Amino acid sequence: MANRKIILPQYGTVMKRGVLYYRTRIKDANGKLVAIYAKTPEELYNKETLALEQIENATFHRKTPTVAEYCEKWLLMQSVHVRATTLTDYTSKVRRHIIAELGDKRMGEVSLDDIQLALVPVSKKSASVYKSVVILYKSIFRAAMESRIIDHNPTIYLTTKGGGVPQEERQALTDEQVERLLDAIRDLPPYVFVMIGLYAGLRREEILALQWDSVYLDTDTPYLTVRRAWHTEHNRPVISDELKTKAAERNIPLPVCLAECLKAAKETSTSEYVVSNRDGEPLSYTQFKRLWQYIVTRTVKERSYYRYEDGKRVKHTVTPVLGEKAAHNGKVVYSLDFEVTPHQLRHTYITNLIHASVDPKTVQYLAGHESSKITMDIYAKVKYNRPNELVRSMNCAFASWDAAQ
Questions:
Q1: Which residue has the higher pLDDT, 307 or 385?
Q2: What is the mean pLDDT of residues 94-118?
């Protein structure tokens, strides 16, 4: 088929320094007339076509919503099909790490360089936080691309590899540390929480949502049922029947020490919640932090606080010494030379199950792991991190083989 002949428009001409130029005018993205010059009509036509394409793209980008506007819309769309706790996590990360950095830019103007620069502060956080923020970036811009909000996706080559600070491998508490921890907080508010974490392996959100109607102490084999989850919105507690995964709903048998602890707690409880505030309500986030502070203040970890002296805010640093009493509170004794986190209680429970030779599928059920890979990763690290036991197992495995040689 023969090439179609392009009919060139009629252009005006103008003399500039003795040279004849063809000229036309077009409106730029701001509506301002701009003159274009060329020595031939063909050259001017090509220049005009290219300029119009560039103006069209600029106009399109300018019409796209800002990153802040589209992110809020995306979060609203996610609210239809994700758990409330997941949406809370998304919202916090999107607003803190995406909107705060790029919120004023138009979606169509964001480049890969813009995103990588915005990720610099996130790279100083944990690898898991970095990975989740990158995934959010990719999800948001992919959705915008699929909805034709933007004409290119700047996150195509964005990767989660190598970003963030690697987290230290979780360590379970030793038997001696468990004993010292329980002695340090006995009869204090966090005691029941810690006991449930250590001897039932519940997640924090599962413990704080646990109600007495899910604790069965009068059966031949006492047990509790995980059926609710706790999270907070604007520091207010929200109790939901929607658990992290389907596997999170489970029945957990109670060892004698935990059953006795819960019986004693129930006798004095005036709340429907196993762990509650003074009003019998579930804890807010601030109240939980205050609860955990009973443990933190009994560790020898160096910490700072501020006091106003002569109208000035003065920083003071405390370096606790094991066995000594706190300077401003004689009831507090620095008795813990190790740090404790809420998740560490659960990890200790799972570790103890593995050391007790509980089979992996049972460990998976009791831990409420949806994926067997999560369980097996922990199982492998714990089970085979004792060289002496591993050598004995290998000797037994190859004993019959050696005898046959």
A1: 307
A2: 95
271 burial via Cβ count (<10 Å: 0-12, 13-18, 19+): middle
Nearest CA-CA partner of 9 in 35, 46, 34: 46
Mean per-residue pLDDT over the chain, rounded: 87
| 33 touches 26 (CB < 8 A) | yes
The CA distance from 163 to 126, in Å, is 8
* pLDDT tens-digit series, residues 46-82: 888 888 777 676 655 557 899 999 999 999 999 988 8
Q: Is the per-residue pLDDT at 335 higher than 90? A: yes
Q: Are strands 229-233 and 236-240 parallel, antiparallel or unpaired?
A: antiparallel
Which residues are registered as beta bridge partners of 312? 309
Nearest to 249 by CA among 216, 224, 273: 224
List the one residue out of 381, 90, 343 whose CA is nearest residue 198.
Answer: 343
Are the C-beta atoms of 115 and 156 separated by less than 8 Å? no
Q: Model pTM? A: 0.70
C-alpha to C-alpha distance for 326 and 264, rounded to whole angstroms: 30
Tokens of 181: 């921890």
Q: What is the pLDDT of residue 394?
A: 46
Residues 6+ apart with CB under 8 A from 15: 21
The tokens describing 260, both together, are 């006795």
- Band the pLDDT of 328: cuts 50, 70, 90: confident
Average pLDDT over residues 257-285: 97
Token pair 């990588």 is found at: 116
What is the full DSSP assignment across 191-247?
HHHHHHHHHH---HHHHTT-BGGGEE-SSSS-EEEE--EEEEETTEEEEES--SSGG
Strand partners, 19: 16
Rounded Cα gap, residues 173 and 111, in angstroms = 46
Q: What is the largest CA-CA distance in the chain?
A: 108
Q: How far is CA 88 from the centre of its chain?
A: 10
Rounded CA separation 180/203 (Å): 22
Percent of the chain with pLDDT over 90: 55
d(CA 237, CA 286): 10
Q: How far is CA 288 from CA 206, 210, 211, 219, 403, in A?
A: 13, 14, 16, 31, 60
